[in-house]
Structure formats: C-alpha cells, structure tokens
Amino acid sequence: VSLTYVFSHPMEYAKFLIQIGHEPMPPYRTRSLLGKPVQALPNVFRYVKYIKEMDGFVGCYRGYFPKITGQICGAAAAAAVTKNFNSMESFSPIEDEMSDEEKISYLKRSLTKDIVGRTVTIIVSHPFVVISARMMAQFVGGEEIYNGFFSSVVEIYKEQGLSGFFSGLFPRWLGELTTLILSSFIIFAINNYVIHDRELKAFTTPTINFVANSLTYPFCVVSSCMAVNNCGLAAGLPPNMPIYNNWASCWVHLSRQGLLNRGSSLLIRYYHGPPRSSSLIAAN
C-alpha cells in the first residue's frame, strides 16, 4: 500500500492543484469524442511533468510526508477506538442463511462501526491533510512558508490558532460519510434482494463505490479549497481564489461557476472557461 501512495502522490498533487483552480498551462484546440471542436486542458501526466520541470523530481513529492503520516495516525486511532466492535459476529449476511431482521441488524452494527472508525480517521488525520495541502499550494505562488513539518505546525497555529488545523474538515467529513452510508445501503440492498449470483455480487461493491464517490466528489473540491483559503498563500487569496466566509459559501460560488467537479476527470479535461473567478468576493 505504501508503494501505491509513493507512485500516486505526484498525480494526487496535480489533482489537488486542479481542485483549487490552478491551471498554469493554457488550453489547446482539439476535438471531442463526438468530433466536435473543443478546447482542452493538459491531462494529469502533462501536469505532473510541468511540476517536475518547475521543481524537479523531489518537488513532485511536496506534502507527501504529512499526508502519509496522517493516514497512519488516523488508521491507528480508528483501530484503537473501534476494537470494541470486533466482538461482533464474524458471519456475513450474504453468505449465511439469515432472516431479514438479522440482516438489517448486522448492517446497523457494521455501519455504526464504519461510521465511528471513519470519523475518527478523518478528525485525527485532518491536521496533517491541511499541512500537506498548504505545502502543495505553495507551488502556485512560490512561497516558502510551509516547508518543514514542525515549522508548518507553528505557522498554522500562529496565524489561525487550533481552528486552522481543521480548515475544510466538515465538507470532507460530510462527503466521506455520505459516500459510506449511501454505498453501504445500496450494496446491502442489491446483494441481498436483487442479485443472487455470487459471482455477480463481486462487482457490486466497486461499482457502487465508484458511483457514490462520483456523486460526493464536490465535497472533496470544497474541502481542498477551504484547506488553503485565506491562509496567507497566493493560492488561497484573490485573484486566484475568493475569500470565503465558510464552506457553504465556497460550495455556492463554485456551483455557480460550474467548478464543483474540477479534477474529477484527469485524462480528458475540457476547458469550460476561466478556472479562476472574476469576482474576488464569494457570495454569502
């Protein structure tokens, strides 16, 4: 898993910059899949290449250390908190003969454990996510404020206090829990009441998870923006980004601009107008 994070981080880095609206390379003329003339933006691989050209190979790994540290700490904390749930029965409602009431009871207990675990993971890891986000966002303005891990901790506390470590927390939490609950109920319903072929059931979870993640993706964009908004970096200040009053005003503003899904497609990226808003003040 750690190797996966190592190889994927440069692309996640580029995706984050796209989410916060940084498009350093101009669009180019091309044709859509239907042959219609359109303008497109460079894909994620070209974006990573651009980052490497600007900052070198090591620069492609800005924010990697706090990100992976947060994931480890979050997973450890969740395991410690949810260990009391491990006494639940080991049987599966799909594989064993159970009544509808038993299946629903199992779902409730399993989902409760997942919600608690995911919430703990998010809360514990989020300060690390904010540090990582601000390290990466420095690419936009070329600042050197958030370079080291401990110096970043001091900087955030000095500028924003403890609340700074939880910038963008709520939309992240809301998005991830919505995904978890939505996918859990749909997968449960399909596997128990619609599909009876065991081989077909293997495709239910990845398919539903993909759909659920696509539906809640805007929360990821809003969380990324709020993690760097008005933090002293050029990436989070006008003209690159309006100053938002809260995450809801960020959502409304991006929705009006049609930008809630930016970064969701990393290979085929059509240009739909300026990625940066012409307005410097977000709607209340």
From TrEMBL:
A Pfam family (short name) is Mito_carr
The text of the family note is: Belongs to the mitochondrial carrier (TC 2.A.29) family.
User: According to its UniProt record, where is this protein mainly located?
Assistant: mitochondrion
Superkingdom, taxonomy of origin: Eukaryota
Q: Where are the Solcar repeats?
A: 1-88, 105-193
The top of its lineage is: Eukaryota, Metazoa, Ecdysozoa, Arthropoda, Hexapoda
Classify the protein's membrane topology as the record does: Multi-pass membrane protein
Q: Which residues cross the membrane?
A: 173-194
Q: Where in the cell is it found?
A: Mitochondrion outer membrane
Task: Enumerate the InterPro entries for this protein.
Answer: MCP_dom_sf, MCP_transmembrane
Protein name, as recorded: Mitochondrial carrier-like protein 2
Q: Which UniProt keywords apply?
A: Membrane, Mitochondrion, Mitochondrion outer membrane, Repeat, Transmembrane, Transmembrane helix, Transport
Which PANTHER family does the protein's record reference?
LD43650P, MITOCHONDRIAL CARRIER HOMOLOG
Q: Does the keyword Mitochondrion apply?
A: yes
